[in-house]
Design a protein that fits this description.
The structure is a homodimer. By secondary structure, chain A is an alpha+beta fold. Chain A has 6 helices and 6 strands, in the order H-H-E-H-H-E-E-E-E-H-E-H. Chain A has 2 domains: about 80 residues, Winged helix-like DNA-binding domain superfamily/Winged helix DNA-binding domain (Arc Repressor Mutant, subunit A), CATH 1.10.10; about 60 residues, Ferric-uptake regulator, C-terminal dimerisarion domain (Dna Ligase, domain 1). In chain A, the strands form 2 sheets. A 3-stranded antiparallel sheet of chain A has the order 1-3-2. In chain A, strand 4 and strand 5 form a beta hairpin. The two termini of chain A are about 40 Å apart. The model of chain A has no long low-confidence stretch (mean pLDDT about 90). At the A-B interface, helix 5 and strand 6 of A face helix 5 and strand 6 of B. Strand 6 of chain A pairs antiparallel with strand 6 of chain B, so a sheet runs across the interface. Chain A binds a DNA duplex through helix 2 and helix 4.
Chain lengths: ~160, ~160
DNA sequence: ATTCTTGCAAAGCCTTTGCAACTGC
DNA sequence: GCAGTTGCAAAGGCTTTGCAAGAAT
């Protein structure tokens, strides 16, 4: 899943989440479910939505409910551990902590997500924002189309159809 | 609303929609509601969602139902008249026909949408896709943050708070 | 006359919430 | 023990759909 080099971080996601919870105005608890979720997400997942996470954690024998999944995902975003992904009309998530800023290619056929970084992005963002006196907080950049494999498959099929 | 120069087109949106409907394998009808919707959208709107369109058309005295709005919006996209916008978790739409390719800045405070074009975008897209042998079909690029006005307002307030 | 379209009401899907039982601190 | 958390069931948004009545060709 992870194709980009990870960023060096001093704490484990689990520790970072515990500290985040403890540091709230009203301290929040680092419960079993919350611990399971951070560990699960940072061991196995990268791009996922609430439902996928719920199903997979249940299948792996974890005790979590859907409401807890939704509630905890929000907190993981607030804690800076996850980044919400704007992809179609559902909410997706990916690792933020320990993972570099990047954007995505999404295959409309097999739904694979390919991560990319482009050296010009930073400049482009800065220039656009300067032009409009816009103070950027974040961005979402997504390219839709056919990935190499799906495109090859299609081309091959087309060639066969002609025979 | 429209800040970018429009693209010269030979047909009116209404004509284009009628032709699209008539040219389907099973020809579809250019009904009163469909005609009202194309006209309404291309006279007044640019960025909107199904609900806003429904409310505003009703407020302006048009006879349309919610299901018809949803069904017709899909067809307008299929006809190449509208472009769906990936913005948060709801479906938004904007003019496609007669309007140039562009991207958006969205103000998180006042929800204003600012359109922009950047000369480097085309190259960047091409390069990223080449690198990954990806056949692009489209993209969605959105910058979130504070617009000039909201940023000014905030800065002013901060200065006042210090007095 | 035939076939497509409309609107209503109802269902679907994803997400959130009220509340009583429970659990971490 | 107290305050925060969980899970259930139910409700909430937004969107889609089945169906009978109505309209376009």
């Amino acid at each position: 899943m992870s194709v980009l080099p990870t960023v060096a971080v001093s704490q484990s996601p689990e520790e970072k989440f515990r500290e985040y919870l403890a540091s709230r105005p009203k301290p929040q608890r680092f419960t079993g479910q919350r611990r399971d979720m951070v560990r699960y997400i940072f061991t196995k997942h990268n791009h996922f939505d609430a439902d996928q996470l719920f199903d997979e954690m249940r299948a792996d024998g974890y005790q979590v409910s859907r409401p807890t999944i939704y509630r905890t995902l929000k907190q993981l975003v607030a804690a800076g551990l996850l980044r919400p992904l704007e992809l179609g009309t559902r909410k997706y998530y990916e690792h933020d902590y320990g993972y570099p800023q990047h954007d995505h290619l999404v295959c409309v056929q097999c739904h694979k997500m390919i991560e990319f970084q482009h050296p010009d992005m930073e400049n482009l963002l800065r220039n656009v924002c300067l032009d409009h006196q816009f103070q950027m907080q974040g961005h979402s950049f997504l390219i839709r189309g056919l990935c190499a494999e799906c495109n090859r498959a299609k081309t091959t099929k087309r060639r066969l159809d002609l025979v």
